[in-house]
Design goal:
It comes from Caldanaerobacter subterraneus subsp. tengcongensis (strain DSM 15242 / JCM 11007 / NBRC 100824 / MB4) (Thermoanaerobacter tengcongensis). Keywords: Membrane, Transmembrane, Transmembrane helix. This is Zinc-finger domain-containing protein. With about 140 residues, the chain is an all-alpha fold. The chain has a domain of about 90 residues. It is rod-shaped and about 115 Å long. The structure holds zinc ion. Zinc ion binds next to helix 1 and helix 3.
């Protein structure tokens, strides 16, 4: 490699980093010298490749956002499940209330009280295993 070329190639690097302005001497040398022209193209390719690598670093930052989004979606789904369970509870309460009223108005009130006592005594026996089955999932 000619000494002049080495000098020009150093100036090409400086030019890329904006340390020196483009000047006619360098540009005319690049246009007339194959080695320096190829060097300039390789440098531009390398810089472009580095830009692509930098873009990929940005996508890793995006992946963190994706995990956050998934987490948020999961939380929203849990909230929706809780709402659904609350809705079932409200619906069951209404059904129980209506059936209670129907019991009182249509049947002997004693039967209702017997049923109430029966439910209060037996409901924990039904609900506790149900509750224990549900908790490990949460
Ligand atoms: Zn040259």
């Amino acid at each position: 490699m000619k000494k002049k070329c080495k000098e020009i190639q150093n100036k090409i690097i400086d030019m890329h980093y904006g340390e020196i302005d483009e000047n006619i001497e360098i540009i005319s040398h690049i246009e007339n010298c194959n080695d320096c022209n190829r060097f300039k193209e390789k440098l531009e390719l390398a810089l472009d490749y580095m830009k692509i690598l930098n873009t990929q670093v940005d996508t890793s930052a995006l992946e963190i956002d994706i995990t956050k989004i998934i987490e948020k979606a999961y939380q929203t789904e849990n909230k929706r499940k809780e709402k659904f369970e609350l809705l079932i509870f409200i619906a069951a309460s209404i059904v129980f209330l209506i059936s209670s009223i129907l019991f009182i108005t249509n049947l002997d009130i004693r039967i209702y009280f017997y049923l109430q006592i029966f439910l209060y005594l037996n409901l924990p026996l039904i609900l506790i295993p149900f509750y224990k089955l549900k908790t490990p999932r949460r």
